[in-house]
Amino acid sequence: MGGTTAKASLIKGGRVEVTSEYEVGADANVVRWMHGTGHPIKVPVIDLAEVSAGGGSIAWIDPGRVMHVGPQSAGAEPGPVCYGRGGQEPTVTDCDLILGYLDPDYFLGGELEVDITAAEAAIRDKIAGPLGLSVQRAAASVIEVVDHNMAEVLRIVSVERGHDPREFSLVAFGGAGPVHAASMAAELDIPRVIIPPIPGGFSALGLVATDLRREYVRTFYQRLDEASHAELFTAYAAMEAAGMGMLVDAGVPEAKRKLQRAADIRYTQQAYELTVPVGDGEIGDGHLVELAEAFHARHLATYGHHSADEPLQLVNIRVSAIGTLGSLGLKPTAVAENAAGFAPWKRREVYFKEVGAIQCDIVARAGLHGQAELAGPVIIEAADTTVVVPPEWVARSDPRGFLVMERSADG
Questions:
Q1: In this structure, what CATH number is given to the domain that contains residue 287?
Q2: Where are the alpha helices (H) located in 220-314, listed in sequence order?
Q3: CB of 101 within 8 A of CB of 179?
């Protein structure tokens, strides 16, 4: 979750979901499983769902006195009202500030002075007044709406893809992600939230650490049960040779070069394909039978049904040429002598929907070392983000700098 949008994808078995059927624009990213809602792009992309929910998303009331959050955004300029740069419409960041999640004296590590009075006035005039609510309750309502919208995105990439979110952990990053993560996890019964080191810069870290990868795609339009084994193998071999040549030219060591086959398949009367993996080596009847079984299983998991007797259409074949870069090599942080005895550096009033407004401990993330444990409610602050640990949640630090939040035994 950043300044304008929140995005989600699913990682299963260490692999992120990839699709070649993606639509952008309009409402496409929010309802990606409904084809025709945006503009299709036919290139391999991570299977993301996206919603207009960021720190700069604007809260507003429609003529029917119904509150919405987004899709309008204040962006970075003028930004939220509290930035004091000319913004007039209340945003998610303004509401986070009013509720005590963000520290007016430590915003961006104290580098940005914010105007909490202006944020309060904007929420009063634009949200609280029209709805007959207190400023605090209006701000809490905005956060409930935006958290629900983001939970719907998590539902899209899990439930709508045939996965049970209760079997996964939620990795929350972006500057605003850790503020709202526990609320989203609670809505979907996700048992665990993982906050990585430097969550505000985690996307950039991923950019420089991700594997080198190039996709090769060739149209191969045949019925699967009638496909020529020799033609199929020859086509794969040609793409694999091209992919291996690319990896060699890129200077990837031999031990780190990898090729993966896949195929785009659909039922003969369908307009959209699903991508399934293809085994290595010579192509024979066994490969095609396994391919059909894999497609039926994928269709069942994705759409909730399949038709084992329906003929299958092979549309495209794919080869992924991958140069693995290995792990990030995150090293354990130094454990301070007083690691078990850290103390809150201050307290302030924070609003939680479970208990209302209470005085809450504020802890500096930089002071957490080793395997420290914090029972909510507590706020953990860093220069790039704030971690909100609600009541009935427990946060534990990891020697490598991760934070793991879980429901407490009483929660």
A1: 3.30.1490
A2: 229-249, 285-303
A3: yes
CA 305/CA 334 separation, integer angstroms: 52
Beta-carbon neighbour count of residue 64 at 10 Å? 5
In a shared domain, residues 42 and 158: yes
Say yes or no: 123 and 50 in one domain: yes
The answer to whether position 328 is within a domain reads no
Q: Given the structure tokens 């009638």, which residue do they identify?
A: 226
Question: Distance of alpha carbon 335 from its chain centroid, rounded?
Answer: 30
Which residue segment(s) compose the domain that 101 sits in?
A: 1-163
Say yes or no: 139 and 225 in one domain: no
Structural domains counted in the chain:
3
Domain contains 180:
no
Whether residue 5 is found in the same domain as residue 148: yes
Q: What is the per-residue pLDDT for 68? A: 92
Whether 149 is in a domain gets the answer: yes
Rounded Cα–Cα distance for residues 231 and 235 (Å):
6
Which of the listed residues 297, 323, 349 is the one where a domain comes to its end?
323
The pLDDT value recorded for residue 35 is: 53
Of 163, 181, 205, which residue is a domain's last?
163
Residues 6+ apart with CB under 8 A from 371: 396, 397, 398, 399
Same domain for 368 and 236: no
Q: Report residues of the chain scoring pLDDT below 50.
A: 28-33, 335-341
Predicted pLDDT of residue 144: 95
Q: What pLDDT is recorded for position 340?
A: 42
Asked if residue 23 belongs to a domain, the reply is: yes
pTM > 0.85: no
For residue 40, the one-letter residue type is P
The pLDDT value given to residue 44: 78
